[in-house]
Design brief:
Elements (H helix, E strand, L loop, with lengths): L6 H19 L11 H10 L5 H14 L3 H6 L2 H8 L5 H18 L8 H4 L7 H11 L9 H10 L7 H11 L5 H14 L18 H7 L1
Helix pairs in contact: 1-10, 1-11, 2-8, 5-6, 9-11
Amino acid sequence: MTGKISVARRKELLSEINRLLYQKYGKLRCKLNYNSPFELLVATILSAQCTDERVNQVTSTLFKAFPDAAAFAAAEAADVENAIRTAGLFRNKAKSIMAASRRIIENFKGEVPADMAALTSLPGVGRKTANVVLGDAFGIPGFPVDTHVKRVLNRLGVTASDDPEKIEAEVNAAIAPEYWVNLSHLLIMHGRETCRARNPECEHCLLTTICRYYKTKKI
């Protein structure tokens, strides 16, 4: 979808989207299972091109074998790869998790940092992963932009960008920080249940009155 909108219009749209989706879903939490910021960091790295359900299956045994950064830092690559194999892209993910663990041990005294710049200095950690950890593990406002968020916001006409960082900046400038974390969860849920990549269920969508995609589709 293309077409720019004003900042004022983006604010109006996001306010209405947040209101309507909150009425349907309420307060949501991350679907990944975790008991510490480090576990959420690892789970989020594993979630790339993988379902949350599969990640939760993997981490249910993974964290028993490797309970903290020190355990991953000292592990053999083959052992970590075998433990996460079913999450896909297991070699790259194992490399990122182990390298991030070593950096956490060396630079942050074994604790996951609660800071965007520090988090994104870790191997394999971009702004989306950092925002997930900040928002869900530390309660620090952040707006993670994954494929669902990007797709839904483009279809609705909130953004015309494919750049996650630009989308994040546009949303952050248009809606108050206290809404960022839950709004991302709401959009992900909506993208999974209704506004799917293929065959979106527009007939069951509560956002059709403000959706650019739906209006274009009806012409």
